Amino acid sequence: MTNPEPAAPAAGRHDLLSLDQHGCAALAQALGCKPFHGRNLFKWMHKHGVDDFDAMTDLPKAFRARLTAEAEVARLPVSTEQPSADGTIKWLLELRDGQRVETVFIPEERRSTLCVSSQVGCALDCAFCATARQGFNRNLSAGEIIAQVRHAVQRIGRAPSNIVLMGMGEPLANFEAVVTATSVMRDDLAYMLSKYRVTLSTSGIVPNIYRLAEVSDIALAVSLHAPDNALRDELVPINRKYPLEELIPACRAYLRGDPRRRITWEYVMLDGVNDSIAHAKALIRLLEGTPSKVNLIPFNPFPGSGFDTSPPERVDAFRQRLLRAGLVATTRKTRGDEIAAACGQLVGRVQDRRRRPVAAVPAHP
Both ends of the chain: CA-CA distance in Å? Predict the structure, then answer.
C-alpha cells in the first residue's frame, strides 16, 4: 500500500522548500533564468533564512516577480512551544491541512540536536511508541521536513550541529521526500552538515535500506529493541515482513566496508521484557561481525503503554555485558521527558486513515 501524499502547496504554487539545489536550478531555467539564479535562490532561503523574494537582490527582477506570483517559501505555524527545565524545546507545528507534527531541539554542552518528523503519525505499530498509538495519516513533503529545520534555526538563532530523523514517522516509508530533505541539510549552500551528523532512524524496511545506500551515505540508526525474531515480532511488527536474517545483512551492506562507519542500534529497555543478561548475550551474538554502536534507551512511559522502565541497575548490567564483549554501548540520557519530548513520546494531531480518528495521547495522565 502506498502512503497518502503530502498536502499540496497553496493554489498550485511551487513549494520551494521541497527543492534541493539542483531542483532550484531547474526551476530557474523553467522560468527563463540561468541555473545559477536558482542556486542563489536556494542560498537565500537556507543559508540566509530569507522568505521575501524582493529581498533577494541578486536575482533578476523578472525572476523575483515570477516567484512572487507562482512560488512560496512556506512556514509551519507554531501551535505550541514547550520548554523543558533541561533546555529541550518541543514545538507542535501546524500543517496546511490541519494536521500537526512535533519537532524537538536538544541542546548540550558541545553539540545540539534537532529531532524532526517525516510523517504525520506512523503506520508501523511499534508496541512501546506513543506516536504509533495515534495511527497514520500521510507523508510529509520534503518542504515540510525542511520547514521544521528552518523554524528551529530561526527560533534558536543558529543551525543545530546534528539532525536526526527520529521524530514522528518511519523515514524510509517516505523515501523520496526524506532523501531530498537530507540532501538540503547537507548542502554547503544550506545547513552544511556532514554525513556523520545527519542520522536516519528506521525500524527496518530492508529494500529501502539498499535503496538508500545507492543515493546517500548519511548515518543509519536501526530501531532494534530485541535480539531475536520472536520478541522483535511482538515489539516491532515490521520484523514479521523483514526479519533479522534480512535486516542484518542489509545494514552491513549499507556500511560499504568503510571502517569509520557503524550502525547505531537503538534498544529501548523494557522492564522484564528485553533487559536480561540472556538478552544481552543474544544481542552480542546477533551483532557479531557488524560494526556497531548500541544505544540503550530507558523506556519513556506514556499513558496506557503497558510497559515499565527497566531499573537503572539492570540497564547498567546490560551495558556492562555488551562492553565486556567489545561492543560500543551507551545509555541515552533522557531529555525532555516532562514535556513528552523524549524518545517514543512524540504525538501530534493525527486523523488516522487506517482505522478511525484518534485523539493525541495527552502529555500527562
Answer: 35
Residue 199 confidence (pLDDT) above 60 = yes
What does the alpha-carbon distance between residue 162 and residue 151 come to, in Å, rounded to a whole number?
Answer: 15
Q: Where are the beta strands (DSSP E) in 206-254?
A: 219-223
Q: Select which of 24, 33, 72, 102 is catalytic.
A: 102
> Does residue 251 have an active-site annotation?
no
Annotate 62-97 with b (16+ C-beta within 10 A) or e (fewer). ebbebbeeebbbbebeeeeebebebebbbbbbbbee
Helix residue ranges, H only, 61-159: 61-70, 130-134, 142-156
Evaluate whether 163 touches 149 at the Cβ level (below 8 Å): yes
343 counts as catalytic: yes
- Grid cell, residue 336, equals 525532555
The grid coordinates listed for 86 are: 533541561
Q: What is the pLDDT of residue 326?
A: 97
Q: Coil, strand, or helix at residue 137?
A: strand
Residue 62 phi, psi (nearest 5): -65, -40
For residue 341, name the pLDDT band (cuts at 50, 70, 90). very low
Q: Which of 115, 122, 251, 343 is catalytic?
A: 343
Q: Is the dihedral of CA 169, 357, 103, 188 positive or negative?
A: positive
Closest of 307, 242, 319, 246 to residue 280, by C-alpha: 319
Cα–Cα distance between 337 and 303 in angstroms, integer?
Answer: 13
What's the length of the chain? 365
Cα–Cα nearest to 47, from 36, 56, 60, 35: 56
Q: Which residue has the cell 531529555?
A: 335
pTM: 0.89
Joined grid coordinates for residue 227? 535480539
